Amino acid sequence: MANKLFALDIGTRSVVGIILEQHADTHHVADILVREHKERAMVDGQIHNVLYVAELIQEIKNELEETHGPLEKVSVAAAGRALKTEQASVSISIKNRPIFTEEDINRLELQAVQQAQQQLLLHKEDTKNNHYYCVGYSVLYFRLDGEEIGSLLDQQGEEASVEVIATFLPRVVVESLLAALKRANLEMEALTLEPIAAINVLIPPSMRRLNVALVDIGAGTSDIAITDKSTVVAYGMVPTAGDEITESLSDHYLLDFPVAEMAKRQLHTSNEILIQDILGFDEYFPREEVIKAIYPAIENLAKSIGEEILRLNNNTPPKAVMLVGGGSLTPHLTEEIGKILNLPANRVAIRDVNAIQNLTRAPHIAATPELVTPIGIAIAAQKSPIHYMSIKVNEQVVRLFELKEMTVGDAFLAANVRAKQLYGKPGHGLSITVNGQNVFVPGEHGQPAQIILNGENASIKSLIKNGDQIQLIPGKDGSGASVTIGEIIDHASVKIVTIQETQYTIGPKIFVNGQIGKMDLLLQDRDVIVVETSETVEDVLKSINYSIHAQQFQPYFVHIDGKPVSFPDFSSQLFINGKPGKLHYPVQNGDIITFEQRHLPTAEQIAAHLNLLLEEKVIVTFQQEQVELVKTAREFSVNGQVVPREATMPNGATISIMEKDSRKWIYQDVFRFSSWQLPASFKGSFTILKNGQPSSFDAEIFGGDQLEIHLTDQPIVG
User: Fold this and answer.
1) How many secondary structure helices (H) and strands (E) does the chain include?
2) pTM over cut 0.70
3) Locate the SHS2 domain: which residues (predicted)?
4) What is the CA angle 321-324-330, rounded to 5?
5) CB of 710 within 8 A of CB of 686?
6) Distances (CA, A) of 229 to 90, 201, 226
7) Which of 144, 357, 494, 664 is 20 to 30 A from 217, alpha carbon to alpha carbon?
8) Coil, helix or strand for 342?
């Protein structure tokens, strides 16, 4: 025996009642009844006057019952134009946390859906309508550290993010449907969504990997659904449809709206259109002439639909467009939409009930595109009905609109459980400045909340059914960050260095907020740390207050008469690991530093290196005795003061060398250094000899000369 299905398509201009008989895998359309609204009871898919809509439903019900018997239950659809689609992304830091689990991914997805819900509340115009059912969502992509990735499962990194597209239905749309059915003494057997109904019968799941647009052109609105990546990725609506064409006819030919509607329908069936204007004149017009008159309206309708398709499809034309609904029969509409989308003519097509597989119909039922959605409602509601379910979340009763297999996550959405509640709060972090650089030490990650479903552990994706009880046990909050200086400072800054066979441990100098700090000091938020490390030989010597002054290891030089002169022989030698080094050379852990210390030179030593004599000496033989003759040849003046020749010369001293007695040695100079004198009683004469030859007192002498004065007694005269 056939299973009889009763379905209603409640549209802006009319209500369609349909009787569908199911025979195994086939469906037969037994009857269809169309009744137009007497008043403007529907606006944008939402019932605004429940009484008027209920009366029309009652009228259809009564008429169908005369032929098909009592009708108590009915399948209906929520208008696609009432659906709201939002795209949202969420990023979280996963630094220093365990690898990503399936449950972590589920909670991240829930957080993204809730973000989409928040965006929807911000964008909507009606601020009173603040409750939405999430009827489904799709993950567009996961990202790890900014790079798109197939899955976050078992991944580690710095940041994880997910972007979803979620679809929502206002609760008031469903409630108004229920109220109208109740007044007509009908029980809602099942509920579906208009775009889903049409897509289910025209675009099977195997085709949804293709990027296809389905447009249901009604009287007041054109509903659009886009498929791609094996799912429905977007829904949209434009407030332009068949009435646009009717109004154009009415304006051009001065027709009452119902008369213009009749004339519009003749365009599909007659070559001559009978038109009676408001003055009562009847006249026949050729079909092409009428189409030409309303062509701007046709172009406007095509433009509105095409631009909305592009907007929903990320400004990219889909692969194909399917048109259903009464308005799809508008002449030349398919080719105009093709122009807007830059699609060939065979990629934009009208689909009627003949496109529905395994469907038959009674002879009196025409195969028109406007019947696709009503038939789809009946079939979709029967194949995948949507019910209400009642569950408890932490003892709060939550009623869910069962559009799909419902999960714990859906229950949390309905109960307004925020995704942040599914994790304990992270502990407070510390913000610290180290040598001018900001360092953030995160607190401990919070532990995840525990989800209990009917007494058993569960996850966000666990399926739920009517009457289930869910308990959410809050996760444990993480501890605040705790860190010492030693944990912040790199231990490589501590060096062990051997200096002159003594081992030293060279650590950094640490200042916390201007005060000396120790490695085990616990840091506080906003502490300012300055670390001074010993990087060079000079740094190391200063840090241990070594007794050898660093100046001694500078190259030795002095300024002589305004010119710098270096003396490597007087510079102390420094060695690092046995190789010559300098004070600015870097020091590594384990280095051995030795040095050969040199004493500061005297004036005499510097003069010797310059091949200059401070004293001039000669040795001669005088009266058979050796005599040394000495005189000052030069004097050193340091910083303007004359110094003795044994005085040490500081590194970098300014020295002037002054020439003193430069005269040649003469014979008479010998008397200043010899004790020989003429005898007091001597009365004779003497002869001056130099090297055995007669000479004189002013004769020049040289070292090694033999000098002699030969005395001759004066004879006595008697």
Assistant:
1) 14, 44
2) no
3) 5-202
4) 90
5) yes
6) 21, 18, 10
7) 357
8) coil
